[in-house]
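queue> pop job 88
queue> type: inverse folding (structure -> sequence)
queue> payload:
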């Protein structure tokens, strides 16, 4: 029996033997060290004195259920456990419970291990993991969005517009592209500086996003140009949509100079033959660009559809800006 007593005393974890009433009948030296009590203060006291007050009532119910089930509970567990020292300080623990019989009487062997250092390392790892996930999300955002305006960048636009063209072809629907260019934007930068120019770009981006439909693809094309890809609009409907965007930009307030935009439109009717989305998108962009230059040539702050260029005199692109 002496060897078992030595094992009990020299175990690096706190050990308790608890009776069916929940009182501690034995405690080892590490229990004294860990909890700050003298052994005489622990014996015959309810084990709930070592449990934080907010958990004590719940703990008593768990203990009663454990006694009725008489099974071993391994160290650790899914839930976080905390113990309470004599000075009322709390610390995280792992607990192992095991039923035992002494002289025909059932008891519980309770092993308590301080996991403060392990939990601190785990918390630090979780924080580092969360930070890495946040940085990854930011990188993903930067990879697909324009850093100034928050809209899709050119790379993301190609990807999403390509998918839209495939859907339009499969469903035999129209696909529309709107090229939007701010009028006299260089003068804003020259007169008021680039910070004001950036403020204008952000305001226009926010306005276009708000005025476009939820399923429209809005992106920054570069510089002061924006592009919108829309699905299912007829030529007439695309003119209405473009006019809505143009009016929304013209209504922007609190800028140092009035902001207006010219918009060129190109519509792809349903195709019977299958084409590469990249080729179709390039063709639509070219058509929308031609319509945009026509809108600028004929006075700016207006919309123009590629299909109606034949009704207009051919513009001189060098005069449009």
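queue> result:
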């Amino acid at each position: 029996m002496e060897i078992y007593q030595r094992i009990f005393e020299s175990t690096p974890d706190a050990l308790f033997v608890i009776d069916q009433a929940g009182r501690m009948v034995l405690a080892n030296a590490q229990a004294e060290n860990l909890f700050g009590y003298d052994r005489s203060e622990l014996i015959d006291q309810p084990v709930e004195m070592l449990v934080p007050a907010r958990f004590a009532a719940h703990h008593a119910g768990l203990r009663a259920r454990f006694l009725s089930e008489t099974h071993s509970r391994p160290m650790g567990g899914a839930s976080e456990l905390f113990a309470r020292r004599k000075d009322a300080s709390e610390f995280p623990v792992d607990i192992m419970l095991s039923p035992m019989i002494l002289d025909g009487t059932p008891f519980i062997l309770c092993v308590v291990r301080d996991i403060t250092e392990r939990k601190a390392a785990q918390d630090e790892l979780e924080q580092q993991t969360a930070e890495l996930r946040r940085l990854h999300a930011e990188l993903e955002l930067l990879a697909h969005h324009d850093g100034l305006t928050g809209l899709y960048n050119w790379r993301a636009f190609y990807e999403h517009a390509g998918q839209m063209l495939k859907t339009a072809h499969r469903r035999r629907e129209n696909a529309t592209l709107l090229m939007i260019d701010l009028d006299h934007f260089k003068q804003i930068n020259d007169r008021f500086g680039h910070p004001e120019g950036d403020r204008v770009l952000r305001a226009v981006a926010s306005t276009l996003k708000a005025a476009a439909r939820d399923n429209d693809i809005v992106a920054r094309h570069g510089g002061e140009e924006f592009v919108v890809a829309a699905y299912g609009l007829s030529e007439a409907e695309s003119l209405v949509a473009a006019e809505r965007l143009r009016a929304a930009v013209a209504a922007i307030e609190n800028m140092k100079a009035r902001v207006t935009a010219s918009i060129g439109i190109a519509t792809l009717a349903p195709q019977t033959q299958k084409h590469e989305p990249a080729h179709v998108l390039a063709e639509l962009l070219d058509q929308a660009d031609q319509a945009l230059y026509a809108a600028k040539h004929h006075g700016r702050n207006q919309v123009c559809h590629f299909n109606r260029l034949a009704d207009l005199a051919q513009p001189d692109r060098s005069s449009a800006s």
